[in-house]
Amino acid sequence: MKKHSTITCFWQGNEACAEAAIAAGCRFFAGYPITPSSEMAEHLAKRLPQEGGIAIQMEDELASIGAIVGASWAGAKAMTATSGPGFSLMQEGIGYAFMTETPIVVVDVQRAGPSTGQATKCGQGDVMQSRWGTHGDYTAIALSPNSVQEMFTLTIEAFNLSEKYRTPVILLADEIIAHMREQLTVPPLETLDIVNRRKPKAGEKAFFGLEEVPPMPAVGEGYNIVATGSTHDEYGIRVTADPIPHRRLVERLNSKIQNHADEIADCETYNIDDCEIGIVSYGCTSRSVYEAVEEAEKRGTKIGFARLRTLWPFPEKIIRKLAESAKAIIVPEMNLKQLFYEVERVSCGRVRVLPLNKIGGGELITPEELLAKISEAKKQ
Amino acid sequence: MTEAFSAQKYLRDIKPPFCAGCGAFTVTNVFLRAVHEQGHENLDKFVFCSGIGCSAWIPSPHFKADSVHTLHGRSIPVATGIKLVRPSVNIVVFGGDGDIVGIGLSHFIHAARRNLDILVIMVNNMVYGMTGGQVAPTTPFKTRTTTTPYGSFEYPLDAAKLAVTAGACYVARWTTININELKESIKKALNMKGFRFIEVVSQCPTAFGRRAGFKDAGEMLKWFKENATPIRQAEQMSEEALDRRIVVGEFTERKRLTLVETVYKTIEEARKVEG
What we know:
The complex is a heterodimer. Chain A is α/β, with parallel strands linked by helices. Chain A has 14 helices and 16 strands. In chain A, strand 12 (about 275-280), helix 11 and strand 13 (about 305-310) form a beta-alpha-beta unit.
C-alpha cells in the first residue's frame, strides 16, 4: 500500500490479513496451500515482492514454519498461514519458536475437522489446539477476529505481541471471517502502532534470559548467537540434564506471558456488570450474538456479553465479572464444547454455564437458535 | 596462512559430547582446517544450522559463531529462511543421515531443486546414533541394528546420487579416512554458489560398529579404506561388484541460477511493474 489517508475498502478477510501483515512490517511469508487460507499466500506472493519482501511456497507445513523461524532469526518479521491439518503439522515448530523465543505469526483459518473433515466449511474446532497443540509446558497467545476489519487490526496486534514478548502468536481465524468480504477502514499506515523487537545493546550477551523478555539479535550481525530448542542457559548453551536451568527457562517463558495476561486480554463487552443472561462468544459465532441480543432485549431480557478477541491467555477477569452478574452464561461455539469448559472453570460454580454447539456443513449458529437457548436459560 | 592451524581458535571451551573414536571429531577438525586454509580468522561470516542427532552437535554450541540448532529434520527449511532474508551470510548445515535424508529428506530434495545457496555436510554413520543405534535409511542391507536384530531387510539410500538428480551444484562423498580430499572438497564447495552437498561416511563405533561386527573405530576405518571406491573406477563396475562398496569422489560440479538470485530478481521485477 502506498501512503494514503484513511481509506475505506471492500476486502476479503484473508486479503485484509495479508495487507495488515505488510502494514505491520512483515517481509517474509512461507506457506503451503490449504483451503481456506490459500488466498493469503496468493495475495502475499503478489504483494510482498512489491514491498521488497519474500513470499515462498514451501514443500509442506513443517518447512513453512521452519522457514519463518529462520527468517525471524535473520531479522525479518515473518508469518505463515494455514488451516487445521496444516496447523497440526506446525505444532512442533510452534513449540520450537516458543522455546527459542522467536517472534512469528501463525494464522490458522479454522475449518471443520478432525482430519480432512470438511475442507471448505467453517468450524471452530482448533480452539484447544491453539492453546495446547505443542508438547511440553507452554503458554499460547491466540487472537480471534470476528470481522474483516479485525482480520486487519488483530493481525497487526498479533505481530506486535509476538515482537513484544518474543513468542509465537496465533491468529485463530475461521473460514467465514476469512472468506467473507465486507467493508473495512484502513487508517494511514504511519498512524499505526507498530512494535519492533528489542535489539541488544553493545556488550549484551544474554539473549535467552536474565530479563523477562531478553533482547533479540539477528544472525549475521556478529553476536555469535546460539539458538537451540533444547533446554539452554541465558547464553543459549544447551543444558540437557540439570534441573535448575530447565525450571528457570520454562517457568520464565510461561510467566512472561501469564504475568501480562490482563494487558493482553482484549474483549468487546456489553452489560457484563448487570445482566440476567450472559453470552461468551468469539469469531464468526459472535456475529449471530449481536442480532440475538438486540432481539432478546426487545423481548425484555437483559443480556450481557463478552466477545473475546483474545482467546489465550484466557481473559479470566472479564468472564468472572460476567459470572458474578448473570444467572446463566451461554457459550455458543462451532465445535463440541471447547471454550465452554474454560468458562465453566472460571465461573467456579457461581453460575450455570450452558453450551450451544453446532458442527458440520459450515452452518452458523443462528440468532433464532440463540434466542431459543436464552428462553431455555431463563426458565431454568 | 599466517599462523599454524588451531581448531581451538574456532571452538568454545565446552567439552565435546562425542564418544571416543567418533567420526564427528574428524569432520570438525577437517572443516575447521578448510576454513583456516581459506584465511578465515574467525567464523563471523558463517551461520551454522543443524537439526537433531549427534552430527547436529558439531557446530552447536561448539563453533564460536551464529548457530541455530533446530528441530529434527528441519535445519534446511530454517536455513532457507535465513539465507533468503540475509543473502550475505554463508550457511553451512551439519546433520546426520537420519536428520538430512530420513526425517528431513523432502527438504533436502527441494533445497537442491530450488538451488538454495547452502552447503550441507551430511555425516553418514549409517545409523541413528544418539537414540542408541536404530536402523537408518542409509544402513547397509542385512546389517544388525537395535531395531533390525535379524539384519536390516531394506536397501539403503544413495544420498549423493539423489542430490545430483535433484539439481545440486556440487556433490561429493568421502569417508573419514579421505581427510585431504574432504578438506579440499569443503574448500571448493565453500567457494561455490548454489546447493552444495558433501556426504562424509563416518564411523560410529558405539551405536553402529559393535553390533555390525566391528571391534573398534580402527576396524571401521579399515573397512572404509578397503571399500572406498573412486567414482571413476565405480563407473566401470557392475552393480554386483559395487555391492557394499562406498563410492567416493565428486559426483557433480555445475552452475545454475541460485534461489537467492531468482528470488531477488523477482523482487526487482515486481517493483518495476509496481513502480
